[in-house]
Amino acid sequence: MSKKHDAEEAAIRELDKKWSEAATAKNMDRVMEFYATDGSLVWPDQPPAHGHPAIRASWEAIYKAAPDMYLDFRPTRIDIASGGDMASDFGLVHFAPDAKPNDPKNTAKYLVVWKREHGAWKVLYDSWNRNAP
To answer: Domains of the chain (ranges plus CATH)?
Structure first.
């Protein structure tokens, strides 16, 4: 991997950390800053949400359903496209500060697709699901 791709991977890892912090703080305006204008959520047990208004509505619903929500994204693999304009980000998301990787109630896997929008990395697709049956 090139040094440029190493730097891009590090940037996405930092974005994952800041996104986790914003989501846990329920800072809706900050959470929305991570999404591309044409971004989409593909979350379990919900219809897909396309675009900022629908994404915001999905986040607001999850905050209402889980007022003490905690999120911590832990990327395990980030791949940068050869053109440097898209990336995939796969890892675990923890729903509790003390969650363990094999805890099906408090840990899930995620896949996020990032794209360059006006020079910045933004979430194009946000998807996750649990390991539990």
So the answer is: 3-130 (3.10.450.50)
Spatial contact of 54 and 37, defined as CB atoms under 8 Å apart: no
Tokens describing residue 25: 């703080």
Using the structure block, give the residue that is written with the tokens 């980030």.
78
Tens digits of pLDDT across the chain (133 residues): 567 689 999 999 999 999 999 999 999 999 999 999 999 999 998 999 999 999 999 999 999 998 898 999 999 999 999 999 999 999 999 999 888 888 888 899 999 999 999 999 999 999 999 876 6
What is the 3-state composition of the chain as percent helix, strand, coil, each rounded to the nearest 5? 30, 40, 30
Residue showing tokens 């109630």: 105
Between the alpha carbon of residue 67 and those of residues 21, 59, 98, 116, the distances in Å are 15, 11, 18, 32
The letter for the amino acid at 20 is S
